């Protein structure tokens, strides 16, 4: 655990604050970091004595030359998880630096602990990302998934729901964000990781739909409080690991086809529209060309708002800042020119499908 990189960091941090030369020796008594670079890789006999006894060794000025590779000063064991992993030496008059020894030892052990925790978190985070990458494949290796889940001490229990969070303009670190979401959901009930720099994937495990909805709302509120710019889409429930790939595709499609102003999107809400994106393109073109005449194209924005407002004339007029009669004129014009009355459910459904299909075809062209 006491690597040269960690040791050099400790030396730099402590030497600057104490204005003393600091040496760190590994479990073999070799100097692996020092304020005096010429001493690196030398054997420090004082450190060997500390490693053997487990006790602090003070070397006075009249003992110069007694301990090979050692200068006057104080040498203390570095303990990590009840094991001596190295020795830290402070060069100088022992009487002047003796009181500093305990402080430097404590700081060193805390820094090693901090580095260890960080490395464990990083390893765990990467392992979870590997599980997610495998789950999202069209033909995942379930043996690999099970092995990696065992490594991080988790299992996946049905039912499942997945969520995708697309983010921009954030200052919080990946690990901090993942830890926050795991805390909200419960680490044993979720698998969280980034699948690219600004896209996070969440798998809910063992929660029913109602429980998942509550957790999703908690996540949404927490991200809002953090003042993050994001859009969140979530799937329908499913019970097979083989469906993770499709659930991700559904979330991705929900983000693509929903209004960009919407930031909390259920696939269920956009599923009828999603069907248009899943049908054969030739069928879509044939249907769209037959329905979309110049009048519908002209008033497509009016129809979009009218359908979003569940065919409510007054609400649509208010949202479009139109006089009610102006809106009625437009709807009547559509009926007169196309034969489809937007105020009737069957005709409204046909027109809505045509508008969705037209947007799909235009997005493909772009």
Count of DSSP-assigned helices: 14
Q: How do the SSEs run, as a string of H and E?
A: HEEHEEEHHEHEEHEHEHHHHHHH
Annotated CATH architecture of the largest domain: 2-Layer Sandwich
Largest sheet: 5 strands, antiparallel
Terminal CA distance: 53 Å
Write structural notes for this entry.
The protein is an alpha+beta fold and 366 residues long. The protein has three domains: 4-112, 2-Layer Sandwich (Beta-Lactamase), CATH 3.30.450; 156-259, 2-Layer Sandwich (Alpha-Beta Plaits); 279-365, Arc Repressor Mutant, subunit A (Orthogonal Bundle). It has 14 helices and ten strands. The chain has helices at residues 4-18, 45-53, 94-135, 142-151, 174-185, 209-225, 244-257, 267-278, 281-291, 294-298, 300-308, 313-320, 324-338, 345-365, and strands spanning 22-25, 31-34, 57-59, 73-80, 83-91, 160-168, 190-196, 199-205, 229-234, 264-266. The strands form two sheets. Strands 2-1-5-4-3 form a five-stranded antiparallel beta sheet, with helices on both faces. A hairpin with a 5-residue loop joins strand 1 (22-25) and strand 2 (31-34). The relative contact order is 0.07.
């Amino acid at each position: 655990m006491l690597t040269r990189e960690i040791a050099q960091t400790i030396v730099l941090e402590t030497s600057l604050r104490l204005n003393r030369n600091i040496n760190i020796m590994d479990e073999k008594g070799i100097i692996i970091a020092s304020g005096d670079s010429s001493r690196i890789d030398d054997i420090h006999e004082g450190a060997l004595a500390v490693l053997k006894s487990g006790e602090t060794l003070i070397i006075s000025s009249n003992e110069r030359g007694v301990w090979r590779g050692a200068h006057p000063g104080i040498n203390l064991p570095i303990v990590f998880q009840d094991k001596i992993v190295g020795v830290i030496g402070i060069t100088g008059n022992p009487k002047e630096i003796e009181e500093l020894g305990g402080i430097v030892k404590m700081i060193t052990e805390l820094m090693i602990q901090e580095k260890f925790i960080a490395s464990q978190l990083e390893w765990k985070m990467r392992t979870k990302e590997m599980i997610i990458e495998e789950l999202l494949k069209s033909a995942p290796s379930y043996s690999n998934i099970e092995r990696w889940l065992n490594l991080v001490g988790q299992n996946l229990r049905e039912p499942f729901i997945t969520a995708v969070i697309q983010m921009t303009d954030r200052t919080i670190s990946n690990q901090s964000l993942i830890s926050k979401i795991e805390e909200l959901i419960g680490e044993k009930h979720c698998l969280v990781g980034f699948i690219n720099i600004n896209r996070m994937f969440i798998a809910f495990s063992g929660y029913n739909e109602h429980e998942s909805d509550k957790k999703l709302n908690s996540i949404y509120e927490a991200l809002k409080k953090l003042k993050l710019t994001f859009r969140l889409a979530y799937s329908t429930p499913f019970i097979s690991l083989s469906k993770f790939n499709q659930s991700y595709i559904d979330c991705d499609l929900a983000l693509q086809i929903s209004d960009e102003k919407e930031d909390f999107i259920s696939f269920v809400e956009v599923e009828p529209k999603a069907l248009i994106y899943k049908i054969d393109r030739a069928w879509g073109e044939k249907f769209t060309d037959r329905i979309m005449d110049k009048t519908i194209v002209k008033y497509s924005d009016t129809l979009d708002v009218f359908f979003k407002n569940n065919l409510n004339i007054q609400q649509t007029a208010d949202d479009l800042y139109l006089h009610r009669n102006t809106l009625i004129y437009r709807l009547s014009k559509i009926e007169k020119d196309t034969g489809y009355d937007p105020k009737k459910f069957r005709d409204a459904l046909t027109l809505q499908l045509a508008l969705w299909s037209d947007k799909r075809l235009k997005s493909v062209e772009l």
